[in-house]
Amino acid sequence: MISKLVGIIDYVDYHNMGLSVMLSNGVAYFVKFFYVSECEIGQKIAIHTVMLYREDSQTLWGFTELSDKKLFEILLDVDGIGPKIAFNIVHRVGVIGVVESVKTNKQSALKIPGLGDKLARKIISELSDMSKFKTFVDEFLNENFKKNNYDVVHINKRNELIDILINFGYDRVLIDKCLNNLDINEDIQVLIKKSLKLLINGNK
Predict the structure, then answer these.
(1) 63-111 pLDDT per residue, tens
(2) Which residues, including other chains, have CB under 8 Å from residue 201's CB and lie 6 or more apart?
(3) Among 130, 141, 85, which Cα is nearest to 112's?
(4) Residue 146 covered by a domain
């Protein structure tokens, strides 16, 4: 089992959202990776991975955060969810977005290409009863509360801001990157203005 790769990027496939990582021993692995647009040949990288086997193939799926990898594996336990949809949920909705959608029974938070209302309801229903997911949520929130000084108010404000920015037409991935550069303790109106400024300028 390959659980993590640390090496140098020696090939980037933008069309198929993947890259090749060359390890120190000279062996290279091709990994499905969401953020290929930010990758360059020669760049050092560390990726958490999940290897999935099919009858005629085996594929490595890569994640920058361990929590994203864990959520991906949990989503695969939901009946009817394959790796492509799970991968998109992890990166377009995010851990906090999935947690909030289950908590509030709000399927609209799971709106991504290829995922209809019926399947969104099924995901929320199965995750809400899944002990593995409940344990994951507890561990994730405890870790992030300590690291980022988050509380329920912070999470609710973050989700409100995400909903507002999505309504403006911005992609969830870009929004998440933007929010990483903001102080969530600020007033929501101030955060909206700063977010829009960052998004208009391409998070620069």
Answers:
(1) 999 999 999 999 999 998 999 999 999 988 888 889 888 988 888 778 7
(2) none
(3) 85
(4) no
List residues bridging with 135 in a β-sheet: none
Instruction: Enter the pTM of the model.
Output: 0.76
Last residue of a domain, one of 77, 110, 136: 136
β-strand partners of 31: 19, 60
End position of a domain, from candidates 23, 40, 64: 64
Domain with 203, as residue range(s), is: 151-204
Domains of the chain: total: 3
In this predicted model, what pLDDT tens digit does every residue of 142-195 receive, in sequence order? 776 555 555 556 777 877 888 888 888 887 778 877 887 888 788 889 999 999
Same structural domain, 18 and 75: no
- Calpha distance 20→104 (Å, rounded): 39
